[in-house]
Amino acid sequence: MKRHLSLILIGLGMLLLISGFGYDLMFAGIPYQDPTPEMSARYDFHQRVASIFYLLGSGAFLIGTVIGVVRVVRRRCSKPQSANIV
Fold this sequence. Notes:
Elements: H1 5-28, H2 37-78
Helix pairs in contact: 1-2
């Protein structure tokens, strides 16, 4: 589990981003031209929910990417280098 944490976070982030995009298209969509106050409030609510999906997905993707890069750098730096005897 620990070995695959970065890949799980990257996948979860992508899933949340795609879900937020789908939610945005299905429920928020294009704003109304001349909305009533009720329609405007409903649009604002759905837009906020989609924004939360976007933020969580971006955060998970970013954290997973950083963890993956840090692990690769640590693995490369911790390898014992062969002694150059001339």
